[in-house]
Write a structure and sequence with these properties.
Elements lengths: L4 H7 L1 H6 L1 H10 L1 H28 L5 H22 L1 H5 L1 H10 L1 H22 L4 H7 L3 H12 L7 H17 L10 H27 L5 H23 L9 H24 L5 H6 L3 H14 L5 H19 L16 H22 L6
Helix pairs in contact: 4-14, 4-16, 5-8, 5-13, 5-14, 8-12, 8-13, 9-16, 10-12, 11-17, 13-14
Length: 369
């Protein structure tokens, strides 16, 4: 029986098979390792921005509110320059703006989450050491595991991936003993509670990013979130009376610029990695933060690394490898097809091949005997 491409179009299969064929190649040939590299760069940048922020606040150069304003000014200029300098992004600015407008229902929660997350991070780093924030950021993988695996059902939770996540979280907790947290006074307790809330905000933002990153480039997505949230940072600083209290010197301005650039790179690399890896792995990569922050404080404050740091690093590595090895393809509900099932993927490829053969056979001239 002759296969007609119109039948495929009526079923909505031809467009999905033709378009994602490129995506299928992208996901199978490069992807996980490229995504892991981006996550590694993200956490290195995150370490730089956390440690520098804590240093600036501890030295009294800024308050959390006015440092947040300066950080986002740097972020807007940095990402704006990136959008203009990259030719592929510059040529598609109109299309990107259209995608942002059409996805405004997801952009608004992303911008709100960005504002809340950054505010909590700044306020907590004014109260507690950076290592506390690094360890408590490990609450984001369990949040993501529940959100993506059981609420949205965009990922397939398995016991192997859960075991890998637990191993990585345990490794990070071993590196910095949670019993050493400065929770004896109310100030430190409030800081730790703020850190716990940042983990939930991070999980929500990553979930929103995963939904948008296929249609909006990472740099444009972060620029949009920051631009939408920026007026609220200014308003918050004005409410605290901190706008006029900035002591801008060459040293403090340079520190604020470093914070802004590192923070931009942190979120940019994390956003970009979502094209290649699952949200669970993005959250799990926070397990690297205690290790990086611990090394940074070793050089800054002269703290020694102990055997617990080595054991923790081994557990983090084992957990990351376990999750990566057990990675399954994502269920793309937004695309209207089950991308997470190998059988579905093969069926789409077979349909694509059948349609190609059908078109070629119709294109051949009919031979008259």
């Amino acid at each position: 029986r002759r296969i007609d491409s119109k039948n495929f179009k009526a079923l909505g299969l031809l467009e999905t098979s033709n378009k994602p064929n490129t995506n299928t190649k992208t996901t199978t040939t490069s992807p996980v390792y490229w995504g892991v590299l981006l996550l590694l760069l993200s956490k290195l940048s995150g370490c730089g921005h956390i440690v520098t922020t804590r240093l600036l606040l501890r030295l009294g150069y800024f308050t959390p509110a006015n440092l947040a304003v300066l950080r986002n000014v740097v972020t807007v200029f940095f990402l704006g320059a990136l959008l203009l300098l990259k030719s592929d992004l510059r040529k598609n600015l109109k299309h990107i703006a259209g995608e942002v407008r059409s996805n405004w229902r997801s952009v608004v929660p992303g911008a709100a989450g960005t504002f809340v997350l950054q505010t909590l991070v700044m306020q907590s780093l004014d109260l507690i050491p950076a290592t506390n924030l690094a360890v408590l950021s490990l609450l984001s993988p369990p949040f993501l595991f529940v959100i993506a695996g059981f609420i949205l059902k965009t990922e397939r939770p398995t016991w192997v991936r859960f075991a890998g996540m637990v191993a990585a979280v345990a490794g990070a907790v071993v590196i910095i003993d949670p019993t050493g947290f400065e929770a004896g006074d109310a100030k430190a307790t409030v800081g730790n509670l703020l850190c716990a809330r940042t983990a939930l905000c991070y999980a929500i933002i990553v979930t929103v990013q995963k939904h948008l990153v296929a249609s909006v480039p990472a740099a444009a997505l972060q620029f949009t979130f920051t631009a939408y949230a920026f007026p609220f940072f200014v308003l918050l600083a004005a409410c605290f009376g901190d706008l006029g209290s900035m002591a801008l010197t060459a040293e403090s301005a340079g520190g604020a610029a470093i914070v802004g650039v590192f923070a931009s790179l942190d979120y940019y690399f994390a956003f970009a990695s979502l094209k290649y890896v699952s949200t669970l792995l993005v959250g799990l990569s926070n397990s690297l933060l205690p290790l990086f922050v611990g090394i940074a404080t070793y050089f800054v404050n002269g703290e020694r690394l102990s055997w617990k740091d080595l054991v923790g690093a081994a557990l983090i590595l084992a957990g990351m490898v376990t999750v990566i090895a057990a990675k399954t393809e994502q269920v793309e509900r937004a695309a209207g097809r089950g991308g997470g099932d190998d059988a579905d993927g093969k069926a789409l490829l077979e349909l694509d091949e059948l349609d190609r053969v059908s078109r070629e056979s119709r294109a051949k001239p009919t031979e008259v005997p």
